[in-house]
TrEMBL record:
Entry membrane topology: Multi-pass membrane protein
Catalyzed reactions: H2O(in) = H2O(out)
Domain of life: Eukaryota
Keyword line: Membrane, Repeat, Transmembrane, Transmembrane helix, Transport
PANTHER family hit by this protein: AQUAPORIN OR AQUAGLYCEROPORIN RELATED, AQUAPORIN-9
Gene3D superfamilies: Glycerol uptake facilitator protein
Region called Disordered, residue ranges: 1-48
Entry protein name: Aquaporin
Lineage, broadest ranks: Eukaryota, Fungi, Dikarya, Basidiomycota, Agaricomycotina
One Gene Ontology molecular-function label: water channel activity
Length: 330
């Protein structure tokens, strides 16, 4: 377009009385320079379009990574502050209790969801929405990988921030025991049986999903900006009422990412072998099952959205679907 505009201007200039002949106009180097600028503009546009396409393709996964990272930075940071400050060599007075810990995790999920742009930041949520709400299964692996990496990076940042306090609490540089492992991964209270720990995580995850489903149900007309606030209230309630038995993981990425980090920095395999592979049965399997059951129950009895698998299977059919095909259509 730039070359065409340039030639149009010169033809009008000739009509106004310029003495340049046609051969000179064609041989002048200016059109070639204009053509080069057009190519440069096209190349820049292609680069910009490539960047835009790449950013658009990666934005969801980047949101999951950053949101889960923020969740772990705030949440695990609260864990470390509450646990480590109980040692008088670390702090003169304890800097928190179970109430502040529950409030901190509530703030963590709100901030994480805001940063992610309304994302899942939880593999259990991703799997539940893929199974029951039509979320694309093609996106599930990318979402879970992004969530896991976000949790791992977030916990690594907090470990670096509190490493000296951990050294003091443990009694020496590089000493790592289960005394501080619970600041990162979740572990059940000693009195909890395997079955009771499983049920506690199942119940907590189900309650979290009920909160998410209620606030994202269009029928309830909850403003989008209020959803993270509602999640803050939900997670605070779960932590305050159900949390101390197992540490309320409720999120496979939030538990497994930090657990991997602890195994990498010196805690060793004990963070996985404790209580007969507790890490697998409760934070991951129980959490995912709780999310699945909660979504199934909500969609079966309450949800009326057409994106639900339950609605598609048992909802009212349209007249076109229920009527027999006409001979012309056959």
């Amino acid at each position: 377009m730039a070359s065409q505009s340039y030639f149009h201007d010169h033809s009008s200039g000739k009509a106004k009385g310029h003495s340049h002949d046609a051969h000179y106009v064609e041989s002048t180097p200016t059109p070639r320079l204009s053509h080069d600028s057009t190519l440069n503009h096209s190349q820049e546009q292609r680069k910009e379009n490539t960047f835009t396409r790449c950013r658009s393709a990666l934005s969801e996964y980047a949101g999951e990574f950053l949101g889960t990272m923020a969740l772990c930075i705030i949440g695990i940071g609260v864990n470390c502050q509450v646990i480590l400050s109980n040692n008088p060599l670390v702090a003169a007075l304890p800097a928190g209790n179970w109430t502040s810990l529950s409030l901190g995790w509530g703030a963590a999920i709100a901030i994480g969801v805001w940063i992610s742009g309304g994302g899942h930041i939880n593999p259990a949520v991703t799997l539940a929405f893929a199974a029951w709400r039509g979320f694309s299964w093609k996106k599930v692996p990318g979402y879970i990988v992004a969530q896991m990496l976000g949790a791992l990076v977030g916990s690594a940042i907090i470990y670096g921030n509190y490493v000296h306090a951990i050294d003091i609490y443990e009694g020496g540089r590089g000493i790592r025991t289960m005394k501080t492992a619970g600041a990162f991964g979740t572990f059940p209270a000693p009195f909890m049986t395997a079955a009771s720990a499983f049920f506690s995580e199942f119940l907590g995850s189900a309650m979290l999903l009920f909160g998410i489903l209620v606030m994202t149900d269009k029928k309830n007309a909850v403003p989008a900006w209020f959803v993270p606030v509602g999640l803050f209230i939900t997670l605070f309630g779960i932590g305050a009422g159900l949390g101390f038995e197992t540490g309320f993981a409720l999120n496979p990425a939030r538990d497994l990412g930090p657990r991997i980090l602890t195994a990498m920095v010196g805690y060793g395999g004990q963070v996985f072998s404790t209580r007969n592979q507790y890490w697998l049965w409760c934070p991951i399997i129980a959490g995912c099952l709780g999310a699945q059951v909660a979504t199934l129950v909500y969609d079966l009895f309450i949800y009326e959205g057409t994106d639900s698998v339950i609605y598609k299977m048992f909802g009212p059919r349209s007249r076109d679907d229920s009527a027999p095909a006409s001979p012309a259509m056959v």
